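Suppose a colleague, Dr. K., hands you the sequence of a protein chain of 304 amino acids and asks what its three-dimensional shape might be. Before reaching for any lab equipment, you can write down a predicted structure in token form. Begin with the sequence itself:
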Amino acid sequence: LCTDDRESEKNEFGLYSDFVCESGYWVLHDKELAYQKKFGTMTDERDGKTYKTFTVEYDGESRTWLAENLNYTVDNSWCYNDDQANCEKYGRLYSTWAAFDIPRDTQYIAASWANDSAWYFEVEDAEEYANAYDTAYDHLVDVLDSVDGQGVCPEGWRIPTPDDWGHLFSAIYEVDKNANIPAALKSKTWTMGMDGLDVVGFNMLPAGVADRRTYPSWIDNEYFLEEGETADDFLFVNGFMDYDLENSACYLLYGKNGETVIRSTNAVFQVGGLVPCIDVSNDGKMRVLQTEPEYGNPVRCVKN
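The predicted structure, expressed as tokens, is then:
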């Protein structure tokens, strides 16, 4: 029983919780973990929005993260399904152009569509399109390698690097060497009975993906339309096809040279690709994926 003489007594309940005797009742509390230094807030001076923050420490080094997805409005960023309520809950979804503050690369977009379409329809000039795509791809890699890591983040903050993610994972593994990283990052109210532990305060939510690709103007040529079809018959032509809200989140990383390696004490995650992201979904797994520059994904920021 929780009696007066046991007031404030603490009993461990698993890795992340304690039962504490308070005023005659045993109350479940999150543990004050060694690496979980503090919670706080920051205000984005650009629009006055205030965000929750958390700080973790590992190997003598502290890093402070936003505990919410960024919700700062710029071109080529969207609310899921254009619903402002989704921005308030899940933050905005940023294309590569918006996240890293670079002009939309129309050369890459055109070459990508031409290359994919040419190979799909087996046209005679497929090799020529492939060469054009490779050239545009190399150009975009060079551009991404030259950008400022601050990107869309507030002054004094940056888009997380693979090293930032590795530091975060290592801090979790320091407490539990067999930790399930997706569960440790997910909000306790994730969705669909797949709630997480949120052991550091990351509060990951399934923000989904904004897909706002549109077919180029040359869609009406003979390779794309069957008899009787019009451009309106195509999936993306009407503006957007957003998906995976309440199912997954894929956070953009600030990588280099089209390659991303995340190293932590217990695991190494590697992906080759143009725009990498950390993906967590309802299946309980975490992956480092390559997303598309045109897709909108959530962004977190780390303090410099």
